[in-house]
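Lecture notes, unit on protein representations.

Consider one protein chain, 501 amino acids long.
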Amino acid sequence: MGLDQPAIDSHFLVNHWTFLNMNFRQPNEDLFNSTKMSFGEHLEELRKVLFKCLIWIAIGCAFGFWLANPVVKILTGPLVDAIAEYNEAEAADELIAEYGHIPPELRPWLETEKFVPRRMRVDPAQLVAALQTVLPDLATKVKLDPYGFQPASFLADRLPELCSQLAQSQALPGLTESRRKLIWNALSPDEQATITELATRRQTNPGDTEKITQIFNRISLDVELYNAAEFADEVTEPVAGFWSQFNPPAARPLVKMKSQLAKSNDANLARRLNRALMTDLFSDWMAELRMDLVAIEFWESSDFQAQSLGVSEPFMVWMKAGVLTGLVFSGPFIFYHLWSFVAAGLYPHEQKYVHMFLPISIGLFVAGVLLAFFFVFEPVLDFLFSFNRQMGISPQMRINDWISFVMFMPLGFGIAFQLPLVMLFMNRIGLFQVADYLNKWRIAVMVIFVVSMLLTPADPISMLLMALPLTMLYFLGIAMCQWMPKPQNPFAEPDREYSSS
C-alpha cells in the first residue's frame, strides 16, 4: 500500500488540475484560441471580401447593361399605367361635367379601348383644303368663306348705331369720318338706302344682320381700302428715328400684311387686310376680329410615352437601368461575401448562424424589392397624381427622373427588410436580449419611421408603406429571438460531465 500511494496522489493531482483548468480558464483564451484573428488578419479578410464584391458588381452591371432596354420598359410600366389611369379619370370627369354621366356608347372606348377625348379647334378652310386633296369634287359642294364677315361679327343691339355712324360720316370732318366716308362712297345706292333705313331702327332682326354682312363682304372683296390714302398710316411703316434702334417699335401686323401683298397679290390676304381695317374702324359696334374656328372632338389613346429633355438623357437612363439591374443581380452574392466576412470573426458555435441567416437574408431582400415594385409604386403614384388633378396640372414625367425614383426605393426596401435578421443575429451573439427589444419598442418604432422617411421620396404614402411593414418585421424579429431554438453553452458540457462523474 505504501508503494502505491505516490501513484494515487499523482492521479488525484492530475484530475484536480484538470477540474480547475476547466472551471477557471477564460473561454476565449483556451477553447477557441485557434479561432481568433488579429486586427491585421481582419483587414486582409475585409480587403478580399470587398474585392470579391466589386467583381460581382462588375459582372452584375455587365449583365445589367445587356438587359437595360427591356428593364427600362419594365420599370416604366407602373408609370405608364398610373398616367393612363389619371388620363381616364380626368376624361371621365369631363364627360360627366358635359353630359351629367358617361354616355353608354362612349364607355367602351374609355374603359375597354383606353381612349380619351380631346377637344380642339381647326380652321374650316384648311380642313376643306386638306379634304380636297383626296376629294376633288368637294370644292363644288362645300362653299366656305373663312376670310369674310359673318353675322357673329356684328353686335345686333348696336347695329343701328353702326349704320348711323356710316350714314352720317359724309357730313362730319376728321380722319375717322373720312375713312367712313370712303366706305360710304363705295356703297351702291341700294346699299346706302339700306344703311340709312337701318340707322332709324330701334331694334333689328337676324335678316338685318345678314344684309349688313353681305354689304361689308362685298366691300372687302371689291375695294382696295388698304391702298387708300385715308388708311396709309395704318399700313405704312413709320420712318425709323435715331432712338428707334434703342427702343424698337412694336410689330404691326397690318404693315406686314401690306408688305406681303406687294409681293404676292393674294386675294385672300387682301380681303383679310380690308376686313381688319373695317373692323378696327367700327370697333365700338362690332365684335372682336377673330377667325371662325370649328370645335371638333377626337379620341386618342391614353398610353403615355416618357420624355427625355436632353441629348444625353437616354444614355444616362440606360446607364442607370444597367447599374440597377447589376446591383439587384449581384445582391445575393454580395450578401454571401459580407456574411462570410462576419463569420470569419466568429467562434465556431456562432458561425452556423451565417449558414442559417444567408438564405433568409436573400429572401428578405428580394421580398423588399418586390414589395416596392408591385405594391408601393401604384399607391404612391396615385397619391402624387391626385395633386395634379386638384391643381389642374398635367403630369409630363421625364424618364430620367422616374428611373432615379425607381432605383432608390426598391433598394431601400430590400436593405431595410434585413431588420429581423439583424435583430436575431445581435441577440444570438449576446449584444441584445429579448427584454431589451421589448422595453425599447417605442424608440425602435420612432427610428423605423425616421429611417423610412430618409429611404423613401418626399411623400407620406411611401414612408408609411415602408414603416408599417418594418414595424411588423420588428416584432417578428422579437418573436424569432424568443421562439427559435438556442444552442447550448459549450462551456457547460465539461462541468456537467465532471459533476456526473
